[in-house]
Amino acid sequence: MCTFLTTKVNEMETLLFPDTRVYKTRLYPLLLLCKPLHFLQIAEVDLFSSGGDEPPVFARDFCKAHTPAPFGVKLEHFLELTEQIKASKEQSAVADTEAGAGFALEEISSLLQKSAAGLATDEFDAELRQAQLTLALAEILDAEEESLREEIFFLDEDEIAAINNLQGKSGSTVGNLMNHLEVAKTQLQTSRPESATLRFSAWLHLFRQQTTPQAVKLWMASSREAAGEILKRYRSAGGEHAVPVLNLAMPSQFLESPDYIVQHIENFQESTAQILQGLVDDFEKITTTANYERSSAEFLLPYHTDWADRWETAVDESFPAGSYGRSRITFYLFPNKLLPELLSQSASDVGGADDRYHGLLGILDNGTTS
What we know:
Elements: E1 2-3, E2 14-17, E3 37-40, H1 56-59, E4 63-66, H2 75-94, H3 98-119, H4 126-153, H5 157-167, H6 172-189, H7 193-207, E5 210-211, E6 218-221, H8 224-238, E7 243-250, H9 258-271, H10 273-287, H11 307-318, H12 321-324, E8 326-334, H13 339-342, E9 359-368
Parallel strand pairs: 1-5, 2-3, 2-6, 3-4, 6-9
Antiparallel strand pairs: 7-8, 8-9
């Protein structure tokens, strides 16, 4: 059983799900608000690390990785299987026919099932290992999506207009480029609820291997689809809907190199320290008020404060929407239910249960470039 160890106070300590790595351009903006950003890691190493160097965000304690089910002596075997999954995924992407693509995907599914048994140990069973392999596949798909997102993001409106003007003059080449962009946009905008459910289920296997810490009071879903799994469980448990309490703007992604991103985040956190503390205090108040009344305006955020408005102003000044795009985080309160309890953790595994009454969930909505 893995336990988070956290000691910091007066920060927006957050657990991200169902992503198992955070160094992605669309997730970096969360670090402006969420510090540290905890996440569950599939294995003891980053599956996509090119040189083994720790990302700059770790050097400043912006992120904290936790590995609930390490592979130990079987780590190398797991990494080899991950490479096989990548290769099978690439085969499915270049398949010429629909049947060929289906066959390749069937190979991936078969590989996941067969490989899990070889990774099982006395401590961690085959079902958990298959979940970890499934999460590895999800991260491979995420990497592809990230590449598409960057491709679109870095083309501004003038460049797209110029490409459109050339389309009638340069034959099929420019036309193919525009078709490629349209396909990429469609892929990014397409909801995949079945995949989200499968990924969340795999993540849940990891989550149940550790104890939720008292310091983590905000859960952050990286998409509406991922949040849907929590929302469904809450409705099933109590028959009521979670309460939307606040909505904040964020840049949709950063343009700078990883090292400069760290500097930019630190500068923003320093200049907005009072605002962030105000938001933390408001969230603390709303989650620790025992007799919550969802119909009363007195129990909604903000508590007669202007922290949210000041946050929006600060984001606009530091990260202009025209350059950084916009995403939004919607915060939901779960009256009389802590989120770990919804995921079947026992009361002894829920840190801080004695002084908190309501769960808090943030949902990151994918942004636009303007």
